[in-house]
Design goal:
There is one protein chain. The protein is of the alpha/beta class. The protein has one domain: P-loop containing nucleotide triphosphate hydrolases (Rossmann fold, 3-Layer(aba) Sandwich), CATH 3.40.50. The chain contains nine helices and ten strands. The strands form two sheets. Strands 6-7-8-3-9-10 form a six-stranded mixed beta sheet, sandwiched between helices. A four-stranded antiparallel beta sheet has the order 2-1-4-5, covered by helices on one side. The longest helix has 18 residues. The chain is globular. Bound molecules: adenosine-5'-triphosphate. Adenosine-5'-triphosphate (ATP) binds next to helix 1. It comes from Rhizobium mesosinicum. One of its GO terms (molecular function) is ATP binding. This is Urea ABC transporter ATP-binding subunit UrtE. Keywords: Amino-acid transport, ATP-binding, Nucleotide-binding, Transport. InterPro entries: AAA+_ATPase (IPR003593), ABC_transporter-like_ATP-bd (IPR003439), ABC_transptr_urea_ATP-bd_UrtE (IPR017780), BCAA_Transport_ATP-bd_LivF (IPR052156), P-loop_NTPase (IPR027417).
Length: 229
């Protein structure tokens, strides 16, 4: 579904993603793990089109989208949940989710969104800024779902969220993948969350993918050595 070949991304003269090549299958869940500042967010931003690539190619669903603007990537079936969630604090839950309807896949919020996130149904009239971190994360995922994505991209979904809630989010994301057939690609620093949710693990270190493994036979100690300072 998604193929990155030799992707390089720079801020000015400083290259932070260095020759990344990876493939994401049409179903299933893949994690990119790495320490702070290793290039996870920058890599995901280049996939959704918020950062231009300096060289390399991105193929999505058989089409070269390397030069396509973000809105076309969303139309083609990608959705993105940014780090820090970026919900609109002064809009209600329902209004926040409705901003995702602009792609036109659904005319109104489909029922399945509230079925996956019942807490959002209870709070649909509450302002987004009054929600807890975990509820805001669910809101950001719900907003991404109404564009009917084939690939859901999440940047550090556990950041700033209590462990008990991250377990619930992992369960819900797993269900979304299985029941709606959405492929999931996310970045993470919390290895337990990544192993719990994903089938394939990629380790990023100083802008390079240094390990790729199926989660069931990953060498956990080896991966941990890239996550600790
Ligand atoms: N807007 C920017 N301008 C210049 N350098 C940047 C910018 N954003 C990120 N960087 C640098 O690029 C490198 C990779 O950052 P990036 O945010 O992609 O890492 P990350 O692995 O997602 O880390 P984090 O967990 O902190 O988000 C870091 O050295 C960072 O300082």
């Amino acid at each position: 579904m998604l193929e990155l070949s030799n992707v390089e991304v720079s801020y000015g003269g400083s290259t932070v993603v260095r020759g990344v090549t990876l493939t994401i299958e049409g179903t299933g869940t893949s994690a990119i793990v790495g320490r702070n500042g290793m290039g996870k967010s920058t890599l995901l931003k280049s996939v959704i089109g918020m950062m231009p690539v300096r060289s390399g190619n991105i193929i999505f669903d058989g089409n070269d989208i390397t030069k396509e603007p973000s809105y076309r990537r969303v139309r083609a079936g990608m959705a993105y949940v940014p780090q820090g969630r970026m919900i609109f604090p002064s809009l209600t839950v329902e209004e926040n989710i409705s901003t995702g309807l602009e792609t036109g896949r659904y005319k109104s919020i489909p029922d399945f969104v509230y079925e996956f996130f019942p807490v959002l149904a209870e709070m649909r009239s509450r302002k987004g800024g009054l929600l807890s971190g975990g509820q805001q994360q669910q809101l950001a995922i719900a907003r991404a779902l109404v564009s009917k994505p084939k690939l859901l991209i999440l940047d550090e979904p556990t950041e700033g969220i209590q462990p008990s809630i991250t377990k619930e989010i992992a369960r819900t994301l797993g269900r979304l993948g299985r029941e709606l057939g959405i492929a999931i690609l996310f970045s993470e620093q919390v290895l337990s969350f990544a192993l719990n949710l994903s089938e394939t693990l990629h380790v990023i270190d100083r802008g390079r993918i240094v390990r790729t493994a199926k989660c069931h036979d990953v060498d956990v100690e080896d991966v941990k050595s890239f996550l600790t300072i």
